[in-house]
TrEMBL record:
Protein name in UniProt: AraC family transcriptional regulator
Superkingdom: Bacteria
Taxonomic lineage: Bacteria, Bacillati, Bacillota, Bacilli, Bacillales
HTH araC/xylS-type domain residues: 8-106
Keywords: DNA-binding, Transcription, Transcription regulation
Keyword field contains DNA-binding: yes
Amino acid sequence: MAWVESIQKAIEYMEKNLTDEITIESIAKQANVSPFHFQRTFAVLTEITVGDYIRRRRLTLAGEELLTTDAKIIDIAYKYGYDTPEAFSKAFRRQHNVTPSEVRKNKGKLQSYNRLIIQVILKGAEPMKYSIVEKDAFQIVGVKREFSRVAEEENVVGIPELWEEVNQNGISDLLFQLNDGIVKGVLGVCGETSEEQKSANVFEYWVATSYSGEVPEGMLSIEIPSSKWAVFEVIGPMPAAMQNTWKRIFSEWFPSTGYEHAGTPEFELYTDEDPNHPELYSEIWIPIK
C-alpha cells in the first residue's frame, strides 16, 4: 500500500500546484522514484501522460472560473500557464469544444476532468504467472533511439515506428539469429542508462538481443547490469496482451508485494511466433529490489 500512497502523494502535489510551474522531477520526488519511472507508471495506470493530466486539469479549472467568476479571460489564461489569450483559447477549444468567450455567454458545455484517485482493486480470481530470477550482467546488441521525457507523446509514435523499421529491413530476423540463449528472444529495452540522459530528460529504447560476440556493423551494444528480475508471463496477441499485463503489474502486483522497481532498464521479450496468435507467449522483465 505504501507504493499506492506514494503515487497518490504525487497526484496531490500536482493538484496543489496547478497554477504554478511544475517539473516532472519535482512530481517524481513526491513518489520517491525517478522521473522516468514515475511517467512510465503513471501512463500505464491512467492511460494518459503526466503532461496530459496536468493540461486537462488546468483547463477544467479554467472553465469553472469562467463560469463562476468575473475574472478577465486573459488573467485566467496567465494563471493556468498560457502566455497568450490565443494559445489559451486554442487549447481550451480543443478540450471543451467551445471558446472561453462562448462559455462566458453560457453557450455550449464544458468537458470536465476530475482529479485522479489511485485505488487498488482486489481481484484474485485471475492469477499472474511470474518468477523471480537472478541474472549476471549480459550484453545486448541492436539498434536504439532516444526519446524525450518532456515530449511524452513522442515515444507513443516513435517506438512503434522503430519496430516497423526493424521488421521491414531484416534487423529483427538477424537479431533472432544472433541470440546466444542467455535471454531467449528479441527484446524491447526501455530506460535511462546514463546520468547525461537523466539531465537531458531523455531515455533510450532498444530493439536488441543478448549476444556476447563482436558487434555487427550498423548495430550498437550495451551491458544490462546484474539484477534480480521479476519475469511475468504474457499470453495473447500484441499489443493488447502486453499492455494489459503492464497495467496489472502496476495496479495489482507491485501494490501487493514488498518489491520496488530497481531503476535500471526493463524489457519486453518477444518470440518469432505470429504476433496475432491468441496463445502467443511473451514476457516482461522488471528489475526489482
